[in-house]
Each structure stands twice: as structure tokens, then as C-alpha cells.
Amino acid sequence: MSWYLGVTTIVFSCIQYLCLSMHSVNEILSGSDLQPLMSEALELVTETVLEIPGGVQLKSYAYRLKKPQEMDDLGVLSYSYHPKKTNERKIELRFCLSQQAYCKNPACKDGTCRSQSACKIEQRLDLLVFHYPAHYLKQFTGATTPKTLSDELITFKRKSNFSTAVNLCSRTRGILDNVLRHNYSSALQNIYLNSQAQALLLYGLECLAEEKPEESFACAFLPNDEDKQKMILAREILLQRLGEPITIKELSRKVGTNECYLKKGFKAMFGTTIFDFYQNKRMEHARYLLYDKGLSVTEVSDLLGYSSISHFSTAFKKHTGIKPCELLLR
How is residue 190 annotated by DSSP? Predict the structure, then answer.
């Protein structure tokens, strides 16, 4: 029988993850595109907690979206260090996949749609949380002194907690899809999931090395929850203003801080500059409007607030590598 892991929502800020309950779902949503949804827009489909022999724990929830939403898939690596309680030291990887299909037809087992006939397909959110405790990670360490960031994390030599975004590249997405849809059971399932969990950890740590995450650890720059909430609010305002460009000066006034603190705090919390974040979201939305909604280049350019089609085309090609008109021909 196919083993299907269902799940939920996720992450993009410095957060403390305690357990997978409806309360923690809201914490995971905090700072992400999904935050406005919260629990009132989600309907639980399935939940699973799996202890994989060797030490990895896999938690999963599946939710149906009561209203269709446009959102991005997200990934986060969370590092937890406890100075005295070594059994509480851990690394977690959390992934949200927002474009999964859910069918309410009882004939479709585990909420997975296997046929297009007589099926009511609805959007769902899948959250996978991989828990790697210190005793599990110890098997990968040697007797030598840690030389890299990954070595420091696996041996828990870094003394501060942090959470940082993980790039959802094609290989990571492939593994997550394998975990959700494999056909193994019993011992083979344990072996398979253990191998996939190790591969995800490898890619997650590689992302940290490639993207110089030392900057991501700067969450200490935001000393309290009030300042973090200001950064989250700034991000929400940017997402709401994709068609109405806003200056950093205006944005800082709206969230109640100065421009310098806003720029530093935003980069510390989300791992990207305000400008890069805003441009990426605008281009992602542009792709959606062009490809999925079938709008013309002129219509999308106007909706996103560009002064001319040429400016929009230049920005779109810089982000995607192709011109808007080329996307329409695909």
C-alpha cells in the first residue's frame, strides 16, 4: 500500500519550533506568505509522526485550503543549541509544499487523487518536518577539529540558535516528492526514508555553505519580538503592494522604525535585501499572471506598476532569463 505523508504550512523567519500543533502551525506561518491564512483557512486532512530507526523523526500534516491561494513553497533549516541539555540539541528541516492536490472522493485513499473522473480536486498544503537530534548527527562527525560551518553545526560548536531559509532547488523538491509518494513499507520504508532524510540534510547544509549564512545568524540583531514583528509587517506590506511600488522611506514609516534599522533587520531576518525580495516577488507574480492567467504583457506591466512595457520586459528577463512574450509562446 502506498504510504502517503500529508502535511501543512511553514516558515521564513527566526522562529522557535516546539511541536506540531495548531498553535505551532501559526508560529510556522509567521513571516511567510501563508501567515494571513492561519488556522481559520485550513482544514486538517491527515497527520503523521514517524520514528525512523536510527534517530530521525519525521512529522507531517496535510491541510486543505478552504480558499485557493497563490503562494510559494518554502524551506527552513532550524538549529537548536542548549548549553547544558545535550538531548535538546537538534537540527530541523521544515518544508512547505503549497501546490499539492487533495480529493474529497472517499475512493481516493489518503486524500490523494488517482483519477480525474468523479474527483473533486482542491488545493492543499503539505508540511514536512525532519528532526535530527544530536545523538543521530554524532555518527557523521570525526575526531578532527571542525573546519567548516557544517562541521560546527553537526557537532553543535555554534553556541546560538537560529533559523534560516533553505533554497528549494530541483533536487530538494525531488526528494520531498519521493518522500510523499513512495511505495515502500516496513523495513524497506525505514531504509528509504533514512536515505532521503540524510540527502535532505546534506543539501540543506550545502545551501548554508553556498549562501554564506553567517549573515542569516544576525537574528540577534533583532533583540525582541516587537522588532521582529516590524520586519514581518514590512514583508506583508511589500507583498500587498506588488502593483504599487513603495519606497523604503515610506515603508519604514508604516512599520515604525528608521530606514537603516529596517534594511538591516529585514536582511537579518529573511536573508535577502528589501529590493531583491520585492523584485523577486513581483516577477514571480508576473509569471503567474502571464502563464497561468493568460494576461497580456501590457496588462501585467500595468498591474505591477511599471512605467513602460520595456522596463517591465527588462526586469522580467533579468529575473527569469526570458522575455515575457517568450513565456506566452510556451
Answer: H
